[in-house]
Design goal:
Blueprint lengths: L3 E5 L3 H14 L4 E5 L2 H10 L4 E5 L7 H11 L5 E5 L4 H9 L3 E4 L4 H17 L3
Parallel strand pairs: 1-2, 1-3, 3-4, 4-5
Helix pairs in contact: 1-5
């Protein structure tokens, strides 16, 4: 099944790196990009999004705030919080809203488990 993944990061370079990793791991998936939470929410009005990768540190709302909003709207959506800010509190808050924590810099190996789990959930219809 071809899925759509939303990549939200204020760094264009970080979005390029994430896109490259996703393309390598899930070449059939469509990729959408947004530079902040507002752009991400606007993208949801015109597209069906199956999976979200969210940077934590962004202007305006941070990735945890966006993840919480997405979780409320899409309870089963696979969501990853991506950040170099590796603090127990942030990891715990991500887990509390059922988001997977992925440390930056993003690599294929770092995304492999999250994306394969997301693909499985989408195939069996639990996402």
């Amino acid at each position: 099944m071809a899925a759509t993944v939303l990549i939200v990061d204020d760094s264009k370079l970080a979005r390029i790196v994430a896109t490259k990793a996703i393309r390598a791991l899930q070449p059939d998936w469509k990729r959408l990009e947004a530079a902040n939470a507002d752009e991400a929410l606007a993208a949801l009005t015109g597209e069906r999004v199956d999976v979200a990768l969210l940077d934590y540190n962004m202007p305006g709302r941070n990735g945890l705030d966006l993840a919480a909003e997405l979780r409320g709207r899409f309870p089963a959506m696979p969501i990853a919080l991506i950040t170099a800010n590796v603090q127990d509190e942030i990891i715990a808050r991500a887990r509390a809203i059922s988001a997977v924590f992925v440390a930056k810099p993003v690599t294929e190996e770092g995304l492999r488990g999250f994306l394969s789990g997301a693909a499985l959930r989408l195939r069996v219809g639990t996402a």
